[in-house]
Amino acid sequence: MKLIVGLGNPGEKYAKTRHNAGSLLLDEIQKHFGFDEFKSEKKFDAEISEGLLKGEKTLLVKPLTFMNLSGKSVRAIMDFYKLSPGDIIVAHDDLDIEIGKWKISDDSRAAGHNGVQSLIDHLGTQAFKRIRLGVEKEGGRTERSEPGIDFVLKDFSKEEAGKISSVLKEIIKELA
Length: 176
Description:
This protein is α/β, with parallel strands linked by helices. The chain contains five helices and seven strands.
């Protein structure tokens, strides 16, 4: 079994924000591959959707703990299903990557991302795969005035939403 975890914050207020890029990817995976509808699982403090990806049972997981406590939810799921960090893919926003781009990394530090740091703290390792979705403005940090913590909680502009949509489609092709 595999877990694909989409980091973000719960609720409509945050649904279309940069910080929810990981959750947006899970919505696309769920639709594209015909996974079950997301259901709230109180014992995991997460929304979960189940399906098959490349013939393997896969759970899509959206922690409901808010970004900075995501590790608590993921740890509970791992313990219940007796999974290891190698069974996890974590999708999240990344301010070190311009919007419209993405990277995959393995066994890397949190680099200031509190949701990823929560996972590392609760799992006791950074040895898991990450899909890092770029959310930074074109031209980088010099093109915006607000601090990153405020910037990631803003909605995508119409143009940015189009770029994110294209990136999510690229990732879906990689997963197929």
